[in-house]
Amino acid sequence: MKPAFQDLIPHNHCFGCGPQNSEGLKLKSYWRDDGSSECVYLPQPHQCAGPTGFVNGGIIATLIDCHCICTAMAHAYALAGREIGQGQPIWYVTGELNIQYLAPTPIDEAIKLVAKVENVSGKKMTLSCELMNVTEAPSTPYARATIMAIQVPSNWLKHADIPAMCEKS
Ligand SMILES: CCCCCCCCCC(=O)SCCNC(=O)CCNC(=O)[C@H](O)C(C)(C)COP(=O)(O)OP(=O)(O)OC[C@H]1O[C@@H](n2cnc3c(N)ncnc32)[C@H](O)[C@@H]1OP(=O)(O)O
Predict the structure, then answer these.
(1) Which of 75, 150, 155 to mutate to test the pocket of ligand 1 (most atoms within 8 A of CB)?
(2) Residue 168 belongs to a domain
(3) Which atom of ligand 1 is nearest to the CA of 152?
C-alpha cells in the first residue's frame, strides 16, 4: 500500500491531519482508482455530540476539512508532475467550508470520507466530499460538503515559529 498523503507532506502539526501533532486525529488519506480520495476514521467515544452515540459536528468538519485540504495538496503535486512532498513545498489552506449534516453519524463504527477535486482555477481548488458508512452502502451520506482550498506561499507558515507545544518529544 502506498503511503498516506499525510505521511509525505512535511512539517504538518495540524490537529486533524498532522503526523507531528501528538494530540491530533492523525487522519490518513489515499487515492482511489477512480481519481477520488478516501479516508477511513474510527471515531473515539469522547468525540460525541450531546447524545453519546453520535459524532460531534465540529469533529466531522475537521475530518472533512483535513481530508479535502490534503487531497488538494496531493492533486497539486500531481499537476506539478512531482511526488507529494518532493521539491518546493506546495501548501493549501481552507478558504471556505460548507457542510450539510444530513443524518446523525454513529460514533461506534468506522466512517469513510470520499473527496473529489471538482475544479482548479489559479490558486483556488474546489472539492466535494461525502461522509458515509465505511461499507459505502447505498444510503444517504451522513454529511456532504464543498470546500474551497486556496494555495498559499510558504510565508503563510510564519507563525510556525511559535514553539510546537503540540509535539511531544
Ligand atoms: C499550511 C499547512 C497546511 C497543512 C494541512 C492543513 C489542513 C487543514 C486546513 C486548515 O484548517 S487551514 C486553517 C484554516 N484556514 C485559514 O486559516 C485561512 C485563513 N485565510 C487566509 O489566510 C487568507 O484569507 C487566504 C490565504 C485564504 C486568502 O488570502 P488572500 O485573499 O490574500 O489570497 P489571494 O489574494 O492570493 O487570493 C487568491 C484567490 O482566492 C480567492 N479567495 C481568497 N479567500 C477566499 C475565500 N475565503 N473563499 C473563496 N475564495 C477566496 C481570492 O478572491 C483570489 O481569487 P482570484 O484568484 O480569482 O482573484
Answers:
(1) 150
(2) no
(3) 26
The residue contributing the CA closest to ligand 1 atom 49 is: 95
Question: For position 113, what pLDDT does the model report?
Answer: 98
Quick check: is 169 in a domain? no
Contact 116, 139 (CB under 8 A): no
Nearby residues of 50 by Cβ (< 8 Å), 6 or more positions away: none
Q: Which three cell numbers stand for residue 20?
A: 507531528
Domain range for 69 is 5-153
Establish if 126 belongs to a structural domain.
yes
Global pTM reads: 0.94
The more confidently predicted of residues 155 and 48 is 48
